[in-house]
Write a structure and sequence with these properties.
Largest sheet: none
Number of helices: 3
Order of helices and strands: HHH
Radius of gyration: 19 Å
Distance between the termini: 42 Å
Number of domains: 2
Structural class: mainly alpha
CATH architecture of the largest domain: 3-Layer(aba) Sandwich
Strand content: under 5%
CATH topology of the largest domain: Rossmann fold
Helix content: 25-40%
Number of strands: 0
Length: 122
């Protein structure tokens, strides 16, 4: 679990991705699989959680690296995010069918006279 925590911390620190421990574990496993399969292999993985439930726990604590941990040997050169909407539920020609992000939701609330989560009352 220590290597997974270190990887989640590294993802947050270096790429700005707020993920949880299981996402750190998934990435460690993906890198280990890639080492096993060789340089020509393509390994895909999913960051399946957020760091929300860990913000007062292990992700904020200093974790020592131990022998055999992969995270200290890892360097990120970038990443590619893939839109999680599929063409089954989203029509590329119809922007109204696209998922709504938090900023668009806030704009819609403001237009309807509601309070925006981005501009709370003072």
């Amino acid at each position: 679990m220590g290597d997974a925590i270190l990887m989640a911390q590294k993802l947050a620190r270096e790429l700005g991705l707020g993920v949880g421990i299981s996402s750190g574990a998934n990435l460690v496993a993906a890198f280990r699989l890639h080492e096993t399969l060789g340089d020509g292999a393509v390994v895909t993985m999913v960051l399946c959680d957020s760091n929300r439930t860990y913000l007062d726990g292990p992700l904020l604590r200093e974790m020592p690296a131990r022998d055999g941990y992969l995270t200290p040997r890892t360097s990120f050169v970038g990443f590619r995010a893939i839109n999680r909407s599929c063409l089954t539920c989203v029509d590329p020609q119809d922007p109204a069918s696209h998922p709504t992000g938090i900023f668009e939701m806030a704009k819609q609330l403001e237009r309807r006279g509601g309070r925006s989560p981005l501009n709370p009352p003072r």
